[in-house]
Design a protein that fits this description.
- The structure is a single chain.
- By secondary structure, the chain is of the alpha/beta class.
- The protein has one domain (about 10-260): Alpha-Beta Barrel (TIM Barrel).
- The chain has 10 helices and 10 strands.
- The chain has helices at about 30-40, 55-65, 85-100, 115-130, 145-155, 170-180, 200-210, 215-225, 235-240, 250-260, and strands spanning about 10, 15-20, 20-25, 45-50, 75-80, 105-110, 135-140, 160-165, 185-190, 225-230.
- A hairpin with a 5-residue loop joins strand 1 and strand 2 (about 15-20).
- The chain is globular, with a radius of gyration of 18 Å.
Length: about 280
């Protein structure tokens, strides 16, 4: 388990990345630029964006303005399924917008509905990894069957799987599967878009531990070996989200948060990977 915000995790491909990140979904313009610079100032070293977010140019400029040396940053972006036919072109476009020579992390953003196209896209990105354009290659929103298909095709598991995870929708089975396969789970929407923070159990723990509900939830991710990427454009919340390394949750407290899981996937907020994008 990581002990500070910039501590590194070793992945199944032998590479390392920070075990805590800053998400950039649904943020843009000067507001996002300020947020990214503030995040770097608070110690975040993993910055997560995507072509689909339409903000890679802003993220790249903000990182340059931050003054943080490039080699200390882990910049991750993603390729949308409609670009799976030409993933190299999509990668080059992301690099151009970000102003980078390589991506520290590159993910297939969703599995999409075309198995053959998905596998061809990953194969082409593997060649880009061999050429140094990508350091860590992974996937996002993939289910166990998608991951197994990749293992059967390429002979290894992806390094990362970024999925929706929060107590109301913990995807415990998928997280266990990834852990057994050595795949690092990255948690998007780790605070449940605010809904999980309103749960009485979360608020009670926050009061007991003199922490905020957001800090309780982020600590839950860390205790479970997950890599959360909270997003905020508010300076105080960006800093607050980073201050989760001076306390621990007991196994009983983790279990109490686990019990918040809603039945039959009712806690899911994002789309179903088996049917999205249409």
């Amino acid at each position: 388990m990581i002990e500070n915000i910039s501590a590194l995790l070793r992945l199944n491909d032998g590479m390392e990345m920070p075990g805590f990140g800053f998400g950039c979904y649904k943020a843009s313009g000067p507001e996002l630029a300020l947020a990214v610079r503030e995040a770097v100032a608070c110690g975040y070293r993993y910055i997560d964006t995507a072509a689909y977010y339409h903000n890679e140019d802003t993220v790249g400029e903000a990182l340059r303005q931050s003054g943080q040396p490039r080699e200390t940053l882990f910049v991750l972006s993603k390729i949308w399924p409609t670009d799976f036919a030409e993933p190299v072109r999509a990668l080059e476009q992301s690099l151009k917008l970000l102003g980078l020579d390589y991506l520290d992390g590159c993910l297939l953003h969703w599995p999409g509905l075309d198995d053959a196209r998905r596998l061809r896209a990953f194969e082409q990105l593997l060649r880009q990894k061999e050429q140094g354009k990508i350091r860590v290659l992974g996937v996002s929103n993939f289910l166990a069957e998608h991951l197994s298909e990749m293992r059967d095709t390429f002979g290894f598991w992806p390094a990362l799987n970024q999925i929706e995870v929060h107590p109301l929708f913990s995807q415990a089975g998928l997280c266990r599967f990834c852990a057994q396969c050595g795949i690092q789970v990255v948690s998007w929407s780790p605070l449940g878009r605010g809904r999980d923070m309103e749960q009485p159990v979360v608020r009670e723990l926050a009061a007991t531990l003199n922490k905020t509900p957001a800090q309780i939830l982020l600590r839950w991710h860390l205790e479970k070996g997950l890599l959360p990427i909270p997003k905020s454009v508010h300076r105080e919340r960006i800093r607050e989200n980073s201050e989760v390394f001076d306390f621990r949750l007991t196994s009983e407290q983790v279990a109490a948060l686990d019990d918040l899981e809603l039945p039959d996937g009712q806690g899911r907020m994002g789309p179903d990977p088996l049917t999205y994008p249409r």
